[in-house]
């Protein structure tokens, strides 16, 4: 490990491991099979890159997206590491150069997409190249029922057997079921497992009921102008709509979805990687391959499909460890849509039940009256004793009330109308509204007619949304979203269980919009210096044709501002500056630090 620690400093510019990295690196260096569950931004890539550099032979890295592989190779090359990627995006000359390097055994890391594993010549080529270990990134993609399933990941186990080498698998999102599937499909024997926690303390978590989603997103982005962000949308059309609205409001914004031609998608990926302050409005087709560390926020304009998808997507913010924010908007329509997608799918019944349970976990998080991290981390098997202090619930605890009687009234209205109607009609019954639809069906003569006048229509709407969120009422896709009682509702209906709900209001959502953003730790006095360092970084990145963070991530620039090194030796102590980067860029950045931003 002495050689590992020296490589950590001299190549990557870090004086110490992040929490949890050392034990994993030791196991990989020792040739053990490893399954590591680490939070996004926790430094997974270093856990296989370091062993590759200090060990013999070639490390094969299986990674899901071309953009991710190419960016990681560029970042490694900037530090002086011999790395390459064989992808369909390579030119003929690029592929030929990498094959020559493999034959001559000059590479330490080779990145490859899982689709290439099925080619008949791949195993022979890798065996000749001297592969001594395999690293699998985003290992949850092997799960056939996961949110990012990639069928070609199923070939990894056979490739491991053919090469006869140890394998280390890494992911940030894997519940116990997915972990077992990873072990079964990738390993011959049980690997050594490392569960390094799912928490991302730097991420501020927030949910808000939809109240004009376009305005909510515009308000949120306006308070964070100049920062990079992702806005996830449920449909392709909404990505275009939100991108246009943000552009009209003066933001750099682009739409991204699978319906765009490949050139436009590549342009969006490239611009997002290289331009400061860019916002991408995207479907879930965007993100897994984005290794941009300084994304300052992720907004879901529509409810994600599961808690795993939610956690994977918000994990793209704040990978540099600096403060970042998340906001998820949701409403009853989202719940109906997600339930319908599960019920109308082709999965077997046991899988549909599991998918409803996953959605329930996300909805419980959305409607939580306690610290968001308690249900979120609890889902992944991690206990939280106290509030986190970095979510909307901790900052502004919601008022709650005993909603047992209100829920009983809602359930009774659904049962007495044979569970054939949606929330709007049931609310009219409870409120005693003699609409044409109600009188035509005789629902004004029901015992529940008018029994809920203590709540306004808006308050009943919030109650029904929470009842759906807690899966006590569920929309029936086969009957146009009519609400029916689940078994979990029966104890509440019979008075055997008390029910507490949040007294949600539109004012609470407005308060969330008005709250100031999380900011990077730089004073007003130091802001011009940081801007000058970023400008120099941007010029160097454009000249090299790489994303800005490949030159230096934001955290390195912030550390420069904080330390104000005066010599190259002092510059060496800045986090993220190894020997090669000090040689290439040290003098240029030192000049700005010495002379000031106006020089």
UniProtKB/TrEMBL annotation:
Its cofactor is Zn(2+); Mg(2+). The keyword DNA repair applies. Residues 213-360 form the Helicase C-terminal domain. Residues 25-192 form the Helicase ATP-binding domain. SUPFAM superfamilies: HRDC-like, P-loop containing nucleoside triphosphate hydrolases. Transmembrane segments: none annotated. It is an enzyme of class 5 (isomerase). It catalyses: Couples ATP hydrolysis with the unwinding of duplex DNA by translocating in the 3'-5' direction. Keywords: ATP-binding, DNA damage, DNA recombination, DNA repair, DNA-binding, Helicase, Hydrolase, Isomerase, Metal-binding, Nucleotide-binding, Zinc. GO terms for molecular function: helicase activity. Its EC number is 5.6.2.4. The keyword Nucleotide-binding applies. Residues 523-599 form the HRDC domain. NCBIfam families: recQ, recQ_fam. This is DNA helicase RecQ.
